[in-house]
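Q: Please design a sequence for this.
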């Protein structure tokens, strides 16, 4: 597939006479693919069973004449008004029992049987018509599944599907009662029919029920996707299906969704309307999302929507600085993107997203953004091509789990304790040192990594505990944090002293802990004092050595961070949320202990990434700051392309290459 760059295109928003101009301009830039039609249901089926596919045939034809292939989206994120009028129950119901009505998008209940029939009719006809077209190379189902569906839907159809899901999981009601702990507050059920989704209660929720609800909800969306993917695959074998995901979003378990895809895609918007952070901070957040997306299938991916200009619905973001859009696109490439598709071709004159700016402004006249993206495409297409399918090589990994995240969302302990912020604190420290890091599920093979960080392993099973132990015995360096081994998979607390099933491996017990409400704690490591927040596990070592101890509160002198050697490896236990400076210190220790390597030392805000290519190893230096930056580059790195200026200009990217096929991480 000779496709490096693309754009999201909505020809139906523009007069037919303009399409030829658009296609010619796209070709001139280096655009080789468009995604279309994911919101075009009404234009393609204005009344039941009357399909008006001709205009889309025409758009595909015009684009193909300019060497541009097409990905088509199924439009189930925006059912038209005539469907809603016919079957108003398709509109979803929120936790409080209110319907969410037509007028925006995502106004659909994904379990509703009538809606499924509308989708079946549409997707079957759509796939039969466009499947044979050689210029339609693949599909996207719906759009950003899970977006706007957080917490939806609580309607009777979803309630019934939830009950079916529970029957399949627990078989009988006694088992469910036991595993949900329904003796508490008289919540016992005599049959599955009595069970409701967790709608608005007078007070409180059952954490086990909530966890199952979140799992069910994710499973429903994955099944909703599969319902469509089966139709598409049957009608058009050999065409790929991908999905545009949203990084750290969690309504859907992306590991599960990824199983139904040939490859995953990401929508990358570093500067949203409310973003006020400095550019260098955006670099690390963007990197984390990309590493997470690459980890879903542990393979390279696409960017299906890459920000190209100001984002905005009602409010607007700042304008990306000159060079910044190119920097973001190359960051995606460096971290595993095979193709980058920009959102969107031209800013729309009407509708909710009037101010979500495209490559072209409202006027349709090419300006600075167009020229910058054209230069990027023309200059870097060969580079993207030589990287296709290649991966960064990581010796460090972070375990990311939707189940753990859900459980922490249900009971965050401290209002500011956010699952993502806890693992990101470690990720950021590794990022600052340019340590290539994979984000992986707990079912991945750990043995590939020298360093494994497993934050908030709150729900634990004997199998997972054993897997961690084997990893350490085999020579791995493993890091656990506070709130590990607290519960079983049903969200029921363990009777064992914490960290429960992992106490022996960690060589310690936590008999007491402190939730740091309105206060912080101090931790002493050697001569240095660090301030920590949110949580303090008071560690009683039983075989572990103390690395750092609290230096404040009634627990001054009590261990806060410990390390135990075990087999050929070591296991660290960090009993508190790490601040950036403490994370940096810890990271230095962990790299020494594990031997996991970093690519290069760079000034703050300059990111170094390495990715295997077909004919060598490529190194990227990405300057996320508004200042020129000097970096000392190893002599073996040969500049790729015309030049690699030093200092690297503001928002500039230098690319280097070595001949060896395996990245040397020192
Ligand atoms: C994405 C979405 C697009 C468009 C864009 C701008 O999240 O997939 O359809 O809405 O944001 O808001």
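A: Design:
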């Amino acid at each position: 597939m000779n496709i490096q760059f693309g754009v999201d295109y909505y020809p139906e928003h523009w007069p037919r006479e303009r399409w030829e101009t658009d296609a010619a301009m796209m070709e001139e830039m280096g655009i080789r693919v468009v995604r279309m039609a994911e919101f075009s249901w009404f234009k393609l089926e204005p009344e039941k069973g009357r399909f008006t596919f001709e205009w889309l045939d025409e758009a595909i034809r015009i684009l193909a004449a300019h060497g541009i292939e097409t990905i088509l989206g199924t439009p189930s994120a925006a059912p038209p008004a005539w469907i809603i009028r016919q079957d108003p129950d398709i509109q979803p119901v929120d936790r409080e029992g209110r319907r969410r009505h037509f007028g925006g998008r995502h106004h659909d209940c994904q379990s509703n049987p009538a809606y499924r029939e509308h989708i079946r009719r549409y997707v079957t006809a759509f796939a039969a018509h466009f499947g044979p077209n050689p210029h339609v190379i693949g599909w996207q189902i719906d759009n950003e599944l899970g977006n706007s569906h957080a917490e939806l839907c609580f309607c009777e159809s979803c309630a019934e599907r939830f009950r079916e899901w529970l029957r399949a999981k627990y078989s009988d009601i006694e088992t469910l009662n036991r595993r949900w702990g329904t003796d508490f507050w008289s919540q016992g059920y005599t049959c599955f029919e009595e069970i409701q989704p967790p709608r608005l209660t007078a007070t409180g929720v059952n954490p086990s029920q909530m966890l199952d609800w979140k799992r069910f909800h994710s499973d429903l969306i994955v099944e909703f996707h599969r319902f469509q993917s089966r139709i598409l695959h049957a009608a058009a074998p050999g065409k790929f299906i991908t999905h545009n995901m949203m990084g750290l979003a969690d309504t859907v378990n992306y590991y599960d969704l990824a199983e139904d895809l040939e490859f995953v895609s990401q929508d990358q918007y570093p500067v949203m309307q409310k973003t006020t952070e400095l550019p260098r901070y955006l670099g690390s957040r963007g990197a984390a999302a990309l590493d997470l997306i690459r980890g879903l299938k542990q393979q390279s991916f696409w960017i299906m929507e890459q920000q190209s200009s100001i984002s905005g619905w009602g409010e607007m973001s700042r304008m990306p600085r000159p060079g910044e859009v190119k920097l973001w696109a190359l960051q995606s490439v460096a971290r595993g993107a095979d193709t980058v598709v920009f959102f969107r071709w031209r800013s729309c004159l009407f509708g909710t997203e009037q101010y979500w700016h495209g490559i072209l402004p409202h006027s349709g006249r090419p300006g600075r953004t167009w020229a910058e993206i054209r230069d990027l495409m023309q200059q870097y297409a060969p580079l993207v091509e030589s990287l296709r399918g290649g991966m960064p090589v990581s010796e460090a990994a972070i375990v990311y789990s939707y189940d753990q995240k859900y459980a922490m969302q249900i009971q965050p302990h401290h209002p500011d304790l956010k699952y993502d912020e806890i693992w990101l604190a470690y990720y950021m420290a590794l990022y600052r040192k340019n340590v290539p890091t994979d984000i992986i599920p707990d079912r991945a093979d750990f043995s590939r990594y020298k360093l494994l960080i497993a934050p908030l392993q709150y729900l634990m099973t004997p199998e997972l505990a054993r897997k961690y132990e084997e990893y350490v015995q085999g020579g791995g360096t493993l890091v656990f944090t506070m709130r590990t081994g607290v519960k079983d998979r049903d969200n029921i607390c363990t009777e064992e002293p914490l960290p429960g099933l992992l106490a022996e491996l960690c060589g310690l017990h936590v008999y007491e802990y402190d939730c740091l409400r309105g206060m912080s704690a101090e931790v002493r490591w050697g001569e240095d004092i660090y301030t920590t927040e949110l949580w303090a596990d008071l560690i009683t070592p039983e075989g572990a050595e103390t690395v750092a101890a609290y230096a404040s509160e009634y627990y001054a002198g009590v261990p806060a961070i410990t390390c135990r050697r075990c087999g050929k490896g070591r296991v660290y236990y960090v009993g508190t949320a790490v601040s950036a400076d403490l994370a940096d210190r810890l990271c230095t220790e962990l790299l020494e202990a594990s031997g996991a390597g970093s690519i290069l030392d760079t000034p703050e805000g300059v990111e170094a990434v390495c990715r295997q290519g077909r004919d060598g190893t490529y190194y990227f230096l990405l300057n996320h700051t508004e200042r020129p930056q000097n970096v000392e580059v190893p002599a073996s790195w040969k500049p790729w392309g015309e030049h690699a200026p030093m200092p690297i200009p503001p928002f500039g990217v230098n690319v280097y290459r070595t001949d060896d096929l395996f990245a040397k991480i020192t």
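Q: Thanks. Anything notable?
A: The chain has three domains: 5-150+233-387, 396-594, 606-658. The first strand starts at residue 5 and ends at 8.
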